[in-house]
Write a structure and sequence with these properties.
It is a single chain. The chain is mainly alpha-helical. The protein has a single domain, classed as Rhopdopsin 7-helix transmembrane proteins (Up-down Bundle), CATH 1.20.1070. The protein is about 80% helix and about 5% strand. Helix 4 (about 85-120) crosses helix 6 and helix 6 packs antiparallel against helix 7. The longest helix has about 55 residues, at about 175-230. The N and C termini lie far apart (about 105 Å). It is a multi-pass membrane protein. Keywords: Cell membrane, G-protein coupled receptor, Membrane, Receptor, Transducer, Transmembrane, Transmembrane helix.
């Protein structure tokens, strides 16, 4: 009964081919688009800003993620096993998980960067120095790498060829690895992004309300001055 239930959730080869086609398209778009972003930032010195350092990191992480998708295409089109060295599939899965985590943390970092620039402009130059940005980017890669490694070291999961879905990912040993990845990556990044952009929205709204109020007061004062003014007779 257990084998029948597991078999019922396995992808058919036709479904694998469809998913593989989507992976190929996504990989091509990701590689081309993110390569252009990386080249644009590297070539033009005008784009060498603190914000674009994170944009460059995001583009590079997404570019590497796109480069891992062909290995998943190989896994999907393989019949019963990975059509190549198993270590290659494991490395592709590790790289993909690390890059996806780095992308999420980089998006949160960009949101924080915008928050400081808009709401605390006087602090911006102190926080986003060259040394801090370099250390920050290193941390953006180190955190997801550690989060990917710790569950496997503790025996909570294993990464490699997943025969159930035909991709390079975590194996169906337990749900502990999925839980560790989900809790460690998605909620933290999402919460930071929501908080930062919500604070930006509130700040901009209050700022605009103040500008409108001052403009209205200036107009009223100008009108009163005109009424009080008595020209020469």
């Amino acid at each position: 009964m257990e084998n029948q239930t597991q078999h019922a959730f396995e992808f058919t080869y036709e479904q694998r081919c469809v998913v593989a086609m989507f992976f190929i398209v996504i990989a091509m778009l990701s590689i081309i688009g993110n390569s252009l972003v990386v080249l644009s930032v590297l070539i033009s010195q005008k784009l060498w800003t603190a914000t674009n350092a994170f944009v460059l990191n995001l583009a590079f992480a997404d570019l590497v993620t796109g480069l891992t998708l062909p290995f998943n295409v190989m896994a999907l089109l393989g019949m019963e096993r990975y059509p190549g060295p198993s270590q290659l599939c494991t490395l592709a899965a590790w790289t993909m998980f690390t890059c996806v985590g780095c992308s999420l943390y980089t998006l949160a970092s960009i949101a924080f960067n915008r928050l400081i620039l808009i709401t605390k402009a006087m602090w911006y130059g102190r926080i986003f120095t060259d040394r801090i940005i370099v250390a920050w980017v290193v941390m953006l890669w180190a955190l997801p790498l550690i989060q990917t490694a710790i569950p496997t070291v503790l025996g909570a999961g294993e990464i490699g060829y997943n025969s159930k879905y035909g991709v390079c990912a975590q194996l169906d040993v337990s749900n502990a690895y999925d839980l560790a990845q989900a809790v460690g990556l998605y909620p933290v990044s999402l919460l930071l992004i929501v908080i930062c952009y919500l604070r930006i929205y509130i700040y901009v709204r209050k700022h605009n309300a103040g500008v409108i109020k001052r403009d209205s007061e200036n107009k009223s004062q100008t009108a009163n001055d005109k009424e009080e003014y008595v020209g020469p007779r």
